[in-house]
Design goal:
The chain is an alpha+beta fold and 271 residues long. The chain is 36% helix and 20% strand. The protein is built from 11 helices and 9 strands. The strands form 2 sheets. Strands 3-4-2-1-5-9-8 form a 7-stranded mixed β-sheet. Strands 6-7 form a two-stranded antiparallel sheet. Helix 1 packs across helix 3 and helix 3 crosses helix 6. The longest helix is centred in the C-terminal third of the chain and has 15 residues. The chain starts with 9 loop residues before the first helix and ends in a 5-residue tail after the last helix.
Length: 271
């Protein structure tokens, strides 16, 4: 008979998060691979329930709710149209819906992000490509003022999370997916910039919008994270298990500060 993985219930997951160091009142930026966690009772909703119990009523849970699906300058789009003829590419472009924070899904962000986004009381920031969703009393302050031409810089929720001394929770994921490192890209001296384009709605009319912003590049984030963890001060990184996964709880401020210096040193000018 095959061994069947044990199902982690909400109380066990909450206890594991508390043992990792999550505390009532925390502001958490969460990246999750539910597959890595193994079976959890009620799936993504059970994981979210455990997170909310761990941070308590004064805490706030934040997730990336990015939407590369409505852009023709994203890696997601390039993969989608690879090998298609011109007519098929035009059909793909015509099918792209404009961003609507109330209803546009974020399927590439995973089940937990979608669960947060669709939970009653959740807020979502306004950026048509790199929005964040949040639940908790800090959501409004953290999500406000996300300028549409600033993906992940000073006018984004990442800067507000930095100000709030938030922590990053990597639930079964690694540093390669650590969105907060992008704030370090903005804080480099004269970071390279590029053009982006996506579908938006202006007074109910669908249109393409092009804008310029920092050239985002997460290709070296795994190496950056390993270097940060090796140099981290006591308490800046905590490791433990939640379900079947090794997870990390990371202080966002020192992670971003380290990223700014490391990226400035390790990236060639203009990269």
């Amino acid at each position: 008979m095959k061994n069947v993985p044990a199902v982690t219930d909400r109380a066990v997951a909450t206890a594991a998060l508390s043992a990792l160091g999550v505390r009532p009142g925390d502001v958490l930026l969460v990246h999750a691979s539910l597959r890595s966690l193994g079976p959890v009772a009620d799936g993504a909703r059970g994981v979210l329930g455990a997170l909310r119990r761990a941070v308590g009523p004064a805490g706030t849970v934040v997730v990336p709710a990015f939407t590369p699906e409505n852009s023709d300058t994203s890696p997601h789009y390039r993969e989608r149209v690879r090998g298609l003829d011109a007519g098929a590419v035009d059909a793909v472009r015509a099918s792209m819906e404009p961003y609507d924070p109330a209803r546009t899904p974020a399927p590439s962000m995973g089940a937990l992000a979608e669960t947060v986004r669709t939970t009653a009381g959740a807020g979502r920031s306004a950026h048509p490509q790199t929005s964040f969703a949040a639940l908790g009393p800090g959501a409004g302050r953290l999500l406000a003022g996300h300028r549409p031409d600033c993906h992940l810089g000073e006018d984004s929720p990442l800067a507000r999370l930095y100000e709030a001394d938030a922590r990053i929770l990597l639930l079964g994921t690694g540093y390669a997916t650590c969105t907060a490192f992008h704030l370090g890209e903005y804080r480099m001296p004269e970071p390279p910039r590029r053009s982006y384009r996506c579908v938006v709605a202006s007074r109910g009319v669908r249109r393409w919008w092009e804008y310029e912003d920092v050239a985002l590049d997460d290709g070296d984030f795994a190496a950056l994270g390993a270097a940060f963890e090796e140099a981290a001060a006591e308490g800046d990184v905590r490791k433990g298990r939640v379900g079947a996964a090794v997870c990390r709880l990371v202080r966002l401020r020192p992670a971003v500060d380290f990223a700014t210096a490391w990226l400035t040193e390790h990236r060639a000018p203009g990269r």
